[in-house]
Amino acid sequence: MEGALLSVENVSVYYHTPQGETEAVRDLSFSVQKGEFVAVVGPSGCGKTTMLSLIMGLNPPSAGQVRFPLGPCPMGYMLQRDNLLEWRTLEKNTVLGLEVQHRLNGESRGQTVALLKKYGLGDFLSHLPGQLSGGMRQKAALIRTLALDPELLLLDEPFSALDYQTRLTLADEVFAIIHEEGKTALLVTHDIGEAVSMADRVLVFSDRPATMKREIVLDFPRSMRPLARRESPAFQEYFAAIWKELQQ
Amino acid sequence: MNTYSKEHVAYLRAIRTHRQAVRLCRALVLLLFLGLWELGARLGWFDVFILSSPSRVFSAIGRLWGEGNLFLHVGVTLYETVMGFLLGTGLGILLAVILWWLPFVNEVMDPYLVVLNALPKIALGPVLIVWIGAGMGSIIVMAVLISLVVTTVTVLSGFTAATTEKQFLMRTLGATKAQTFLKVVLPAGVPHMMSALKISVGMSWVGVIVGEYLVSKSGLGYLIVYGGQVFKLDLVMASVVILCLLAALMYGCVALLEKRFQK
Description:
The complex is a heterodimer. Chain A is of the alpha/beta class. Chain A contains 9 helices and 9 strands. In chain A, the strands form 2 sheets. A 6-stranded mixed sheet of chain A has the order 5-6-7-3-8-9, with helices on both faces. Chain A has a 3-stranded antiparallel sheet with strand order 2-1-4, with helices on one face. In chain A, helix 7 (192-198) crosses helix 9 (233-247). Chain A is globular, with a radius of gyration of 18 Å. The two termini of chain A are 29 Å apart. Chain B folds into 2 domains: 6-46; 58-262, MetI-like fold (Orthogonal Bundle), CATH 1.10.3720.10. Chain B is mainly α. In chain B, helix 4 (70-101) runs antiparallel to helix 5 and helix 9 (177-214) runs parallel beside helix 10 (220-229). The interface between A and B is medium-sized, with 15 and 18 residues.
């Protein structure tokens, strides 16, 4: 599909360990349009994370290719745990990426602080991570990723280490942030509800080796936020459809 | 200004009383020990020639002072220990950095490190004397050897405190290996480095005193050996007491350093 921001084409990945060879991903193809929010759902350990580091360019595929038809695409990666550095203040943690890329200057620092303020962390700039709640920490991790102004956000189960209530509210906030900042996002999760409440499109993966089982386009109004989506009747239908797909 | 409830005030008072009680009892333990020792000596419960007594230890220190030798011996030992400690920990940390940086070398060296760590370095004393000569050099090298290996092993394990996930995060941010080391691995290892320093302080004292037992013409270790040979147990005890104070002082300095780093 030309015009896509990201195009994964017939990709296969093999893992090598002394015990043998494992096929993690098999002949996988999909694409992500600019501005789209795509969620990938699949059983735990089905090679979703492998796929993300592949897209990020940290590991090469065994076959097939990952293309960016619109040209080079700066990417940001958000992990399951916030991995904030305990000895750095919140502000210094969020500029870490700028710092290592030698892009930290008055302007970029100001933009990052503005993001922190805009999304409710303005009062905690000089706090250490240990003084913040799990939800705040993960939000800070998102802002650390956004500080580099990536086009595409790769979200690797970013809420699964949080308690249920925090997970729902943070998903709602992160959704709003991603839309407001106009980012494209690829979310990997095993939580069906999370995928249905956030994405425009859900890709259902099979157990290892990961292949695409089904693609479900979610028909929610663009501005409808995750918490509102969870209230709607369509949510249950999509949830049931994906559930059924994963059970087979 | 005191807006605490009665219960809270009582709670705070209980904490203070507890702390004072601990302090008081610590002092009492020391006084009791010294008192019984002195009393036993005076009443002839044991032979002062063998066990000495606090007053005799005190006058032995006075005599050293009077002869003008106290600071010579203390100075020599202190110099050797500080040098051994600084060189041992410095080289130990450097070695740990190199081994972290080169995983292949680390893997190759691992069994050697284990053996070196287990080896009583004191066994190398006679060899050192032959190689370096009977003097201060041998003593310092002994202290270095004893503190170096344990520092390397402790600091290296500290570097693994930075999880692989944090290192992966640095990769996703586009960091080089040097940046990952300086911004994540090294700071994460600071608490381990501090405990390595604490171990190393004690190890340096062991190295220096053993070194002085083997070769020396001055220093506290020399005084102890000399005192033992001529049956001047007062002198031996006096040296041990001074050693206690110095070791506590140096440990205190490291603990202070640790507190500063934790801020």
